[in-house]
Amino acid sequence: MSYLAAHVLAQAIAGGSLSSRQVTRELLDRITSVGAPLNAVIELDAERALAAAASVDAQVAAGGPLGLLAGVPVTVKEAFAVAGLPTTAGLPELAGRRAAADAPAVAALRNAGAVILGTTNVPTLLADLQCDNLVYGRTTNPWDAGRSPGGSSGGSAAALAAGLSPLELGSDLGGSIRVPAAWCGVYGLRPSNGLISKRGHLPWPLDGLLEPAMSVAGPMARNVADLALAFQVLTGTTPGPALSPRFPRGLRVAVWTEAPGAPADQETRACLARARKALDEAGARTEDFIAPVPAEVALPLANRLVEAEICRSGPPGAGPRLQDHLADQEQQLRIAQAWDAAFELVDAVLCPAVPVAALPHDDRPRAQRSVLIDDVSYDHYALGAWSLLTSLPRLPSITFPAGRGEQTGLPIGLQLVGRYRADHDLLGLAATVDEVVDGWRAPPGW
Fold first, then answer.
1. What are the residues whose beta carbons fall under 8 Å from the beta carbon of 354, sequence distance 6 or more?
2. Is the pLDDT of residue 245 over 70?
3. Would you say domain 252-436 falls under CATH 3.30.70.1170?
């Protein structure tokens, strides 16, 4: 039961072979028993969840119309407003405040019949690729309690990997979906910008109307089909192409292995090479990828745009000059055009999601940390470089598990990147690629 896919649960509940209340009760029990040491789900809404599940069961019995996620338990990253639950982004001064209304993305899940179990842990102000704060404490990785699950959607990825939830609502600015998905061995969709609302998400005002220019909200799951189902719900779109894997013959995949400032260690490169070989043997056409814009240009620009978005919640005067910011936005659009031209020649780009497998917890401030990659020391911010390179042109990206590291035995995640606003197509391609690489498995002991 713990590891049933969301789309399987939806079908079983709608067909009456499973009750939503039974599934919800079992997951709530798992969260508070074997899942408790992970500290992944940090606020439960058990009473309302069970009531919502019972309501779905009554609808099924009466033969009434059902939403796409009717009766399916889900969890939500704590930075999103969930009516009646604390929304703190790990800040102690916000610990007593409860959200008055659901964020639009949360409301979309509820409107589709999803049962909100509770919220998952984040780092303070979402400003880390680890998962620790003074309100809720530290979340650990189900693969190794001494290692981080990633951040900022760290509790999200850990809950999925440990079978505490089948589906999660996460968010991503500089890798906050992709790094945790890779480190916990699950799947995450960073959608094209502008398709899923990110309003009602800290650290921006919960009642604000402005949508951010760089960051996105997106689903996380244990398979591509669940990402596709959640994407449909969150965007209110009609179903895309069928996700049944097709024979990959003729699929054009560009493999991106190197970019200045975006390293990848030996384990990650070996996993990428194995994935490429598997695609070649299945009939795909792979080729080396040369980015349309040098990383030396893209990364500084991406970092400036990230800083501009962060300053929305900072003190007055902390952001860039308006003239400079407009120039950066103009350059971002020109880079997006260059990437769009690149996709005339390929169907997707395959690259690392993060340079290394999950790292040990590190209590030092992020600015004081470094990471050793094949005996070379890098600034800790290099962990998000692959994410920034694909976020800058606003592209959809699916992170998926592609095997275990030969030295660490930990999950290695890769990104499959697609054309802007061709998210449905990318989901179909990801289902095909996922068939020929080493996909999801439960962490040992879970």
1. 150, 175, 178, 179, 182, 183, 268, 383, 384, 386, 387, 413
2. no
3. no
